[in-house]
């Protein structure tokens, strides 16, 4: 029997202590970095050639490949930007600290990280979405992968099992638990552990976990080797066309450089359109940035890249975060999204003939 929303929220409130503890660690990291380096989160640098230099923290996955392709094809340079991509640890707490002290200007992160940081008192905001989720007969954007001979055949079967996600209190943690609940299972009975995407393949192959919630190209490599996907936990939890990955910036940087950010939005839109229209180049970029074998990438379901902010997804995510105790209350939308950013209108039409359900 499924819990009522009230019961879920009450139990989530008890979990909030754990969430606050995690964000306290973020605060310590931010405080130490700010003290050591000096806070100047609004500064923008111009290169000798007159380009606006932006340092972007990201983790190399298929979901970020349009950034790399846009840089390589000169899209951002045509809009007056010198983009420096810095592969990060994937830790949102570290990214927030770097944003606030001005060491980086933008960071790729999961959508859950931004309202969590704002709820803890850290002034960051979403400036654009990266990709939207989808289900398709051509393959899903995200996958819950298990061994080929596993007895797990549904999300409800994950109760009592160990599932690897890229981080605790993350989008993937949240959607796995909610997918289990949607199928009538007990989300608290799932043993969720943190394993970076690039290490999840080994963990599943070695039997250290029963399942992984992952992205491309990692899911495709496993499926090609006889593992199988039991479905997309994100669409099971949130419905189709929900945004998981975003770019965030400090509120100070955006407020002091609004013209720069408007120009960046135009560049981002052009890079997004180009990536969606050139799947072969995206596959080449995924191979280059992730190190995945070309043969494994050749048939992968590619991301559906988007620009602008999917505000519907943002509000849906924060509501679910409250239910699961990640937030004590929902922040106002303008507290964690840039109000001048356009809506993600390119969610309406799937790119390159992609067949989607919903």
Can you put this structure into words, describing what you see?
Mean pLDDT is 85; it is low at 4-38. This protein starts with a helix and ends in a 22-residue tail after the last helix. The strands form two sheets. Strands 1, 2, 3, 4, 5, 11 and 12 form a seven-stranded mixed sheet that branches. The chain has a five-stranded mixed sheet with strand order 8-7-9-6-10, with helices on both faces. It is built from 15 helices and twelve strands. With 358 residues, the chain is α/β, with parallel strands linked by helices.
Kindly report how far apart the N and C termini lie. Answer: 27 Å
Global shape = globular
Q: Please state roughly what percent of the residues sit in beta strands, choosing from under 5%, 5-15%, 15-25%, 25-35%, 35-45% or over 45%.
A: 15-25%
- Averaging pLDDT over every residue, what do you get? 85
Q: What helical percentage do the residues reach?
A: 40-55%
**Could you describe the largest sheet, including whether it forms a barrel?**
7 strands, mixed
**Oligomer category:** single chain
Structural class: alpha/beta
> Over all CA atoms, what is the radius of gyration?
20 Å
Summed up:
This protein has helices spanning 5-37, 65-72, 75-78, 92-100, 113-119, 171-182, 197-205, 218-224, 233-238, 251-256, 258-277, 279-290, 294-297, 311-323, 333-336; strands at 45-46, 52-58, 81-87, 106-110, 124-132, 142-146, 162-165, 191-194, 211-215, 228-229, 243-250, 304-305.
Structure keywords:
15 helices; 5-stranded mixed β-sheet; 43% helix; 358 residues; 7-stranded mixed β-sheet; alpha/beta; globular; single chain
